[in-house]
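Reference record:
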Amino acid sequence: MALTKVPNKILSSPCTLLSANSLKKGEFASLIVDMRDAMKKNNGIGLAANQFGHHISLFVIDESLAAEYEVPSVFANPEITEYGKETEPMEEGCLSIPGLWVPIHRSKKIMFKALDEHGTKIKFRARGMLARVLQHETDHLQGMTIQNRASEQSR
């Protein structure tokens, strides 16, 4: 399946939440495998379900990044519950907007909660590159891209 690109409307509206029960039953297991494959094939570090044509609140991140920070690599219904005051800019790209690289200011530390791929509630503090990737992918599930974030930050 091809990745969804801007201006596809699926990328600009908040995604539907998933039930913990549907995750526990493994209803999204094959989608998760397909999303991981698509992310790797396209040299991504994260991929939201809406970038893959599914309007659901789910994303995957690179497994080596997850291992480095000792967190899962699949997140459903993510929520950033606290943003650190200190931010830093970094150029970000997006698989849904090929060729665009823009500086985005993001919090260096966040508090994050979600469900893992088995429907288990998780909560942790993220920092560094992990915090940046989680913010980027959570933005996607809320209907926001780096294009929106860059124009919002330039105001």
Observations:
- The chain has one domain: 9-153.
- Strands lie at 46-48, 58-61, 74-83, 87-92, 102-107, 109-115, 121-127.
- The radius of gyration is 14 Å.
